Automatic annotation (TrEMBL):
This is Tyrosine-protein kinase ephrin type A/B receptor-like domain-containing protein. SUPFAM superfamilies: Growth factor receptor domain. It comes from the Eukaryota. Residues 1-20 form the signal peptide. Keywords: Signal. Pfam families: Ephrin_rec_like (PF07699). It comes from Adineta ricciae. The keyword Signal applies. Residues 60-94 form the Tyrosine-protein kinase ephrin type A/B receptor-like domain.
Amino acid sequence: MAKSVLLAVFLLCLAANTFSLSIQECRPGYRCRARASKGMLRSLVPQNADMWEEELCPPGTYSEGGATECTPCAKGTFAPAPGSAMCYDCPKAHMCPSTTEDAERCPQGTFNNATRQTCCRVCPPGTQARYIGMLECSPCPAGYACKQRERLACETQEEPLPFFGVQLNFDPSSLSAKWSNCYTESYSHSMNSTTLESILNRCNGRKLLLACRRVGTANLAVAAAGNREDVLFNCEKAINCTHAANGANWYYSSSYSWGFAKIGDSVARGSCDTESPNGSHRLCWHTSPGDGGYRCGTVQSLNTNSAWEKVIYHTA
């Protein structure tokens, strides 16, 4: 009789340690599943809703604790090991085509200057990335020809650009579902190196669409789209610098100005573009500290204006 009592007590303790776990106690990196006791344990352990068992979250998923299911990692993040309490952002100079594997450094001939990217980009013609894990491509040295490598397999699945050239009165609802608005702010709001870093972390897609419009209107008054490296072509403070891509002349600086003009048109940045030819096809935002504005098509001097807004869309 005494042996039977001891055995019953042992089984009760075993059951309590194994199964009597409240859902709130489910640890990060685990999911908790309800489990009913069987056989002798059923008669010894009270049957209630607090009987759970923990299971490790599989790679590519995570749990912050107290969960019945693990959450899949978002695109551009990864969790390579079981039992993750979070997913890690894919770092710059790397690519993360899979959420279940570690980030891969960009191969030679490719680059990536943004976080949470699923693929590295091939260097444009006339440039090179001599080493793996490059943030940007460098110009091909004088006297040399730099052969462009083939596109990576992950890059061939990209969303195409929605249109060519500068568009007027563009309806953003015509964009595919893969495009999303990542930034909208009035022209009175200033851009600088600090705010730009935050904006570009949010707008981290491989393709960007810059636009402007009057506040309260749906259509974009002026819009142009391009690959990320084209839209962010660094002209520093060069007055006439532009970079032609997808039907627009682009320029960017984190401390001067950012915008575009119709392809073939010159710009006069001081710091924003004040040129007049095809003025309706021009957009310029100050990026120097303390300055808002500046132009949305032919509407200029918007430095403190809250009736017009800057808009950015992006896609992977």
